[in-house]
Design goal:
This protein is mostly helical. It is 55% helix and 9% strand. The chain contains 9 helices and 4 strands; from the N terminus they run H-E-E-E-E-H-H-H-H-H-H-H-H. Strands 1-2 form a two-stranded antiparallel ribbon. Strands 3-4 form a two-stranded antiparallel sheet. The longest helix is centred in the C-terminal third of the chain and has 37 residues. It is globular and about 70 Å long.
Length: 295
């Protein structure tokens, strides 16, 4: 059943569900029970790509699988075998529901620093409202400030849940290291730690988008107030027309935030930025290695 679950996900991720067939054989002839899997498209549908071999260029259908697909396959098999669904569901619930939960609008939280962050973020948002999503390109310079807001909020209002989230993530990292190892130096080293970082990225994105959604509604109200001055209120946050990036003074305020369980927030954000820079290069490297393997 575990292999069937994994293969269903693998074929879906590669767009092969309707065109590929597979078979598998369980081998008990070594100390480690293992499964051999063969997959084929009777009527090939994958895109053609050009490959160079011995100085000649060949045009063949893509045969390799993405590294991310293989990772998801292994995770699906392991989760099915070891029944990790409950633990993973708890992590997902903390990210989606419990940690971002707030009883009143973000701008009304009774903390001066949070209000200061809120006003600074809102005043620097780009003119194009379509860009008001955490992972959009135009939000790059504002993400550290959104992360600062989220970090302080969780420390003040959801510290118990944040500790539970971090603890469950570390348990999952240890489980993955036990299952897959720590990876080969220079190739897939510390892959389990990437899971930890990715889940924090997901949490910050969820929190940031919640704040930005409220700001979008506030901006529309402000536009209405501008058209009808009678509706204006002195406490409404204002947005500058320039949409410029946060100043050094704003970003330096991150240093005042207390520790976010493992290291201070500033260091966590620096780690996130370094991870973001190297993630694309690492993915390309793994795909190239898989391409050479499946030729």
């Amino acid at each position: 059943m575990a292999i069937r679950t994994g293969m269903s996900r693998l074929l879906a991720n590669e767009g092969l569900t309707a065109s590929a067939v597979w078979s598998a054989s369980i081998h008990l002839n070594t100390d480690n029970i293992h499964v051999h899997i063969a997959t084929v498209e009777p009527d090939p549908q994958r895109d053609f790509k050009e490959f160079e071999r011995d100085g000649k260029v060949f045009r063949e259908r893509k045969g390799y699988l993405k590294a991310s697909t293989l990772d998801k396959f292994k995770s699906a098999v392991a989760n099915e075998l070891l029944n990790r669904d409950q633990s993973l569901a708890q992590i997902s619930s903390l990210i989606r529901d419990r940690l971002p939960a707030h009883q009143e609008p973000w701008r009304n939280l009774p903390d001066r620093q949070l209000m200061n962050y809120y006003k600074q973020i809102y005043s620097k948002l780009p003119a194009d409202r379509r860009q008001w999503r955490y992972n959009m390109n135009d939000m790059k310079d504002l993400r550290p400030l959104l992360d600062a807001f989220a970090s302080r909020y969780m420390q003040l209002y959801h510290k118990t849940e944040l500790e539970a989230f971090d603890s469950q993530l570390m348990n999952e990292v240890k489980f993955r290291e036990f299952l897959y190892g720590k990876g080969q130096p220079g190739k897939e080293e510390n892959r389990s730690q990437e899971y930890y970082d990715h889940k924090y990225d997901e949490l910050f994105a969820r929190m940031g988008n919640s704040v930005l959604k409220e700001m979008l509604a506030q901006d529309r109200r402000n536009q209405s107030m501008h058209e009808d001055p009678k509706e204006d209120t002195p406490d409404s946050p204002k947005r500058s027309s320039s949409g410029s990036s946060p100043s050094h003074g704003i970003l330096s305020s991150l240093k005042t935030i207390k520790n976010l369980l493992r290291g201070d927030v500033q260091q966590h954000l620096l780690n996130k930025q370094a991870h973001d820079r190297s993630a694309a290069e690492e993915e390309n490297k793994r795909n190239n290695q898989n391409q050479d393997l499946y030729r």
